[in-house]
Amino acid sequence: MLPLNASKRGLITGMLMIAIILLFYYGLKYPLNGNEQYLIYSVYVAGIVWSLWAYMRSQEGTPTFKEYFSTGFRTFIVVTLLMVLFTFIFFSFDTAYRESGIAANNKLLLAEGNHTPAEIESNAQQLRKIFMPMMLGITTFKYLILGALITAVGAGFLSQRKQ
Predict the structure, then answer these.
(1) How far apart, in Å, are the Cα atoms of 162 and each of 71, 85, 139?
(2) CA–CA dist 75, 10 (Å, integer)
(3) On the CB side of 119, how many CA atoms lie within 13 Å of its CA?
(4) For residue 90, what pLDDT is reported?
(5) What digits encode the pLDDT tens for the residues 134-154?
(6) Collapsing DSSP states into helix, strand and coil, what is residue 16?
(7) pLDDT of 53-80, one tens digit each?
(8) DSSP letters along 116-145, please?
(9) How far, in whole angstroms, is CA 119 from its chain's centroid?
(10) Nearest to residue 74, comparing CAs of 139, 6, 143?
(11) Short-list 63, 78, 79, CA closest to 155
């Protein structure tokens, strides 16, 4: 059996995260931004820690912060790539989330009473146009920041450890 490197651990982690999202959304009918997000983030953190821990166990001597961070980086960058790709595919095929958000926004604008129907429709068209880039940007930023933070903290702790 081939040993798992950091990228493969990232692939496993990302696929597990996607499977959990699909299970909660389609299987259990949970909303996309519900409390299950904590489980998704926990799997993400566990995947990065798993990669760092495995790297520590495979090395002789004490690896440096840079070596740990490089390992964690390879893990979280693969997960981020998978999650961005999943987000693009998911929202390309399932537009119900986007449309329900636009409908809620239209309802709020209508309740304000100071917008014409043409303005509301124009706003809805604008929201449809920016939805995908906004979701991809949010997903990318969220997973990169969280991954870098967890990796830096984990690398900091593990690089200080004495053998």
Answers:
(1) 19, 39, 37
(2) 4
(3) 9
(4) 92
(5) 999 999 999 999 999 999 999
(6) helix
(7) 999 888 877 888 999 999 999 999 999 9
(8) -HHHHHHHHHHHHHHHHHHHHHHHHHHHHH
(9) 34
(10) 6
(11) 63
Residue 162 has pLDDT above 70, yes or no: no
Per DSSP, the residues of 38-86 read HHHHHHHHHHHHHHHHHHHHH-SS---HHHHHHHHHHHHHHHHHHHHHH
**Can you spell out the DSSP letters for 92-105?**
HH--HHHHHHHHHH
By residue count, the chain amounts to 163
pLDDT in tens, 88-97: 999 898 888 8
Q: Which pTM value belongs to this model?
A: 0.87
The tokens describing 153, both together, are: 């903290």
C-alpha span between 37 and 153 (Å, rounded): 21
The Cα-based distances of 129 to 19, 124, 139 in angstroms read 28, 9, 17
Taking CA 144 as the corner, what is the angle to CA 140 and CA 148, rounded to the nearest 5 degrees? 180
Taking the C-alpha atoms of 136, 137, 138 and 142 in order, what is their torsion angle to the nearest 10 degrees? Answer: 100
Residue with tokens 């699909």: 22
